[in-house]
C-alpha cells in the first residue's frame, strides 16, 4: 500500500508543472522584448558570425543555457538555448525530450499586461532510427513582438549519443 501511495504521488507530481520551471521560462520569454539583454551574462566565445554568452536565467534540469547574438546588418536578433541532455542513451534523451515538451505546454507565463500566455503545439513521437526530430511550439500572445516567436525542442543524434536542446527564437 505504501508503494502504491508513493507511486500515485509521483504520478500526480509529474502532471503538475514545476513553478520554478514556469517562473524561469516566463523571465526568459518576457526578456525576449529586450533581445535577452537583461539575462545576458559573461561572453563565452566569439565566432565570426556570432557571440555566445551565458544566460543568467536558466531552466531547471538544463545542463547549460546560453544566448547567441548574430552579426548581421539586417538581423540583430538573439536566440536563447538550453541543453537538457547530452549522453549515450536514446531512452534517457527521449524521456527528457518528452518531459521538457510537457513542461513547456503546461507553463503559464504572465505578460506585461498581466495576461497569461502559453506555448501551443503538438508532440510528434520521434523514432530512434531518425537522427533528428524537432517540435515547434508557438507562443499564443497578442503582442506583435511575439508574432514569430517560438520554442523549438530538438532531439538530435550526435557522434557519441544524443542531445536534447530547447531554442527560444524568432
Quick synopsis:
The protein has 170 residues and is an alpha+beta fold.
List the helices and strands and how they pair.
Elements: H1 2-15, H2 19-31, E1 40-47, E2 50-55, E3 64-70, E4 78-87, H3 90-106, E5 109-110, E6 116-117, E7 119-120, E8 132-139, E9 150-158, E10 161-169
Antiparallel strand pairs: 1-2, 2-3, 3-4, 4-10, 5-6, 7-8, 8-9, 9-10
Average pLDDT reading: 86
Number of helices: 3
Helix content: 25-40%
- Tell me the radius of gyration: 17 Å
- Fraction in beta strands: 35-45%
SSE pattern: HHEEEEHEEEEEE
Structural class: alpha+beta
Contiguous uncertain segments of 5+ residues: 1-16
What's the overall geometry? globular
Largest sheet report? 8 strands, antiparallel
Key structural traits:
3 helices, eight-stranded antiparallel beta sheet, 26% helix, disordered N terminus, 170 residues, two-stranded antiparallel ribbon, alpha+beta
Amino acid at each position: 500500500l505504501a508503494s502504491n501511495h508513493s507511486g500515485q504521488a509521483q504520478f500526480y507530481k509529474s502532471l503538475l508543472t514545476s513553478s520554478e520551471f514556469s517562473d524561469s521560462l516566463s523571465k526568459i520569454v518576457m526578456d525576449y522584448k529586450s533581445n535577452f539583454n537583461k539575462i545576458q551574462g559573461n561572453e563565452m566565445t566569439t565566432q565570426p558570425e556570432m557571440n555566445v554568452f551565458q544566460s543568467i536565467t536558466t531552466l531547471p534540469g538544463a545542463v547549460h543555457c546560453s544566448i547567441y547574438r548574430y552579426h548581421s546588418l539586417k538581423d540583430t536578433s538573439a536566440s536563447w538555448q538550453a541543453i537538457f541532455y547530452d549522453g549515450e542513451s536514446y531512452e534517457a534523451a527521449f524521456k527528457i525530450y518528452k518531459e521538457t515538451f510537457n513542461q513547456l505546454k503546461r507553463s503559464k507565463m504572465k505578460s506585461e499586461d498581466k495576461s497569461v500566455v502559453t506555448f501551443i503545439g503538438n508532440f510528434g513521437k520521434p523514432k530512434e532510427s531518425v537522427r533528428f526530430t524537432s517540435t515547434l511550439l508557438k507562443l499564443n500572445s497578442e503582442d506583435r513582438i511575439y508574432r514569430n516567436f517560438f520554442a523549438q525542442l530538438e532531439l538530435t543524434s550526435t557522434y557519441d549519443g544524443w542531445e536534447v536542446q530547447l531554442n527560444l527564437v524568432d
